[in-house]
Every structure is written in C-alpha cells, then in structure tokens.
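Section 4.2 – Deliverable D4.2 (structural model, holo form)

The reporting period included a commitment to supply a predicted holo structure for the target in complex with PXG. Inputs used:
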Amino acid sequence: MAIAENRSRSEWQELDRQHYLHPFTDHKDLGEKRSRIITRAEGVYIYDADGNKILDGMSGLWCVNTGYGREELIAAATNQLRELPYYNSFFQCAHPPSIELSRILCEVTPPHFNRVFYAGSGSESIDTMIRMVWRYWDLVDQPERKIIIARKNAYHGSTVAGASLSGMEPMHQQGGILGNIAHIDQPYWFGSDRSMSEDDFGVHTARALERKIEELGADKVAAFVAEPIQGAGGVIIPPSTYWPEIQRICNEHGILLVTDEVICGFGRLGAWFGADYYGVKPDLMTFAKGVTSGYLPLGGVMVGDRVGDVLIDKGGEFYHGYTYSGHPATCAVAIETVNILQREKLIERVRDDIGPYLQKKWATLREHPIVGETRMVGLMGALELVRDNRSLERFDGDSKAGVVCRNFLVNNGLVMRAVGDTIITAPPFTLSHDEADELIEKAWKCLDLTQKALSKGS
Ligand code: PXG
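Output (structure tokens):
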C-alpha cells in the first residue's frame, strides 16, 4: 500500500518544505524552488508526482545497479523480515543471512579477502576502516603510524571521519575535521594545464603520494585511501599509469592500501571491484550502495589477510560495531543482488555489451560544440562542458554551465549529475541499447539547449 496516496504534489512539497531537512541542501533555496517528488520507479525509469517519466542515468545515487522493480529483491527482503526481521551479531550471535553473505563476499572478492565487517552505509564503512587501520598499526607495534592520506575532491562520506577523509573543501570549512589526515592532488588530467602526456601525468600525480610520505615520514603514515575512479568528485578516471605506481609506492613504504569501492564495487567498471579492474591488491576495501542494489542500506569493509590475521591473532576484542551490522534483511537482499549479478551475467554485460555500446555513443558527444572531453569506463562516465570544443576554453564559474545543463536534462526526462561543469552518468547495468540511444539523444538535445541558453546570457 502506498503512503497517503491521496496527497497532491503541492501538498507533498509543502510538507517537505516545512519539516524535512535534506542532505547537502540549501533549504532556503529549496523552499522557493520546491522538491521534485518521486513516487515510483520501474526498470531504468523513475516517475514523479506529475507523471513525468525520467530515465535514471545515475542509478538512484550510483546504487540501483540491477534496476528498479526487482521482484527477487523484494521477495528476499519480505521473506527474511517474516523469518527473522532483526537480531544482532554482538554477544556471540549470528544468523544465516549474514554468515552466508560473508561466504559469498569472500568468494567474489580477490583471494586474499577472507573476512568482512558490516556497517549500514558507506560512511560507516569508512569509519570502520579507519578504526581498523589504527588498530592494525597498534597491534604490530608501530602506533606512531596514524596519518591516513587521501585525495583532494575525494568523497568518502559525511560522518566526521568520512567528511575528514573526503577532500571536499566546502565540507572541511564547516568544521569538525579530524587530525591525522592528509590530502594529495587527484589524477584529473583534463583539469590540469595538460602540459604533460596523460601517461606522464598519471605517474606524476601518483608520485604526489611518495612526496607526501617523504614529507610526513613513512613511519608516521598508516594508509592511503582512494576510490579506484573518483565518483562524486566528477568521475575522475586516472591515466593507466596511475594505479601501478600507487601500488609500488604503498609496497615500498609498507603502508596499507585501501580502495573505497562504494561506487566502483559490484560491477560498475565491468569487473567485480575497481581493484580487479586496475589490477591492484588493496589491504582493505570499503563497499556499500551496489551490494544491495540500493534496495536496503548495507555497507562494510572487506578485510585482507594482512590486517585480518593480525586483528584476530593478536587483537583480542575490537571495540567496534553497529546495531545494524549484518542486519538480516539487508544481508538477504545483498545475497540476492549477487545472485542476480551472477545469474544474468550483468558484470560481463557491462564489460562486453552495454558498456562498450554506451562508451562508443558517449564518445560521439565530443563532437558537440560545448563538449571538451568525454570519458567512460564500464558504465561510469563524464563529459566536460567548455565554451569551445576546439580551444577547450572553459566557461567562467558564474555561468553555472553544469547546473544549467543538469536542469535541462531532468526537465527533458534524463537524470545526470553536474559536478561543476562536468556532467556525469552511471546508469543501471540493465540499460538496453534503445535506452542507451535515448540517453545519448536526450544528452545531445540538452547540450544544444545549454549552448543556446549560455550564448544568450553572454
Ligand atoms: N565512499 C564513496 C566512494 C561514496 O561515493 C560514500 C563513501 C559514503 O556513502 P554513504 O552511504 O554514507 O552515503 C560515498 C557516497 C553524489 C553522491 O552526489 C555520492 C555519494 C553520496 C551522496 C551523493 O555523487 N557517495
């Protein structure tokens, strides 16, 4: 049964304005503009309270990877809620869904991952990971190794630890940021002065890690944490030289390597994890979002043997955990999500079929007069808006080209996100070829509208 179906769109908007504080939202501004009320979804489409059908080019928020309306996931949740809606896994208790999911996750991750710790979200996974990293170094008698290095413009969540580790200046300016965290530049070639080749730039930006380690002292550095491809920061795809150099540096200095797989994990790049795609061997991997296809909230940390063996052999009790660590219904949905990915070969589909299909079409957008670069790996892509696609001159910040384009997109039935003047997309793995064509046609049309609107304004 839908909730209070009889309210009109404007009633919902008014109640929303009065009572509901949204994430990352300016409420004065929202109060004037009003929210778009999304009422239902099916396949790769969402529907709003006015009946508009909108192609979801963001899979919700990078999570509904197997698409909306999945009866198998709904059944997995309801069956589990009926059988055992909740029990904790503190005090030497466990239940079949959390144990079974643990087994499955250790099977789909690289062989050195044999243990998992559950959380309720990506941010909680990051907090868990940081506490684990510090605990590890204490247990191996190097307690002075405390500093965690992350990257500018990274997004790792918005709890105190998540916001601290994230490299987002506006978040840091609002205070409450932890110590023992340092940031280095991101491997954003298009955003650089482009005086280096992409390959040289990849090595150069990876070596920023080495320079930072030398500056801080290797004996003070605990870990390096990075998204395989930065998501919320604008789909920053590193040059192919980047990750091998990062791996070398972490190995040489003995520091832990952590990949934040909250977006890249569970198939987004056409491989199970970003670490698989780039051929790196992280010690820990954080995950959330795609593990349940977004149907219920679940996150966690995959613990590699280097850390796991020490935690267990020497660690005693780890004073950490959440009420909802390993929640039975979320674990049941995650098990079924992995089943769907395997049964329907959706990750292979991203790698061999819809991924290459959309990538090829996406690349044609580069011909549009206001597109300076297109890039996409698997089903995770971005395009850069520029004033002129030959000189690559960027719009000035005041023109808000990204926001203008994003608004045209949603009003024309396609959700993509704007990060500054970068337009990003991450559609569900079930996107058909026709739906991919629709995405590209709508994108082209909205680029035209954006170009017209901005040339009028200038
Ligand atoms: N790590 C990464 C890589 C993420 O993308 C988190 C951690 C935190 O997850 P939770 O579940 O605590 O939100 C994220 C979340 C955006 C956007 O605008 C991206 C995220 C969240 C909200 C908005 O692209 N990613």
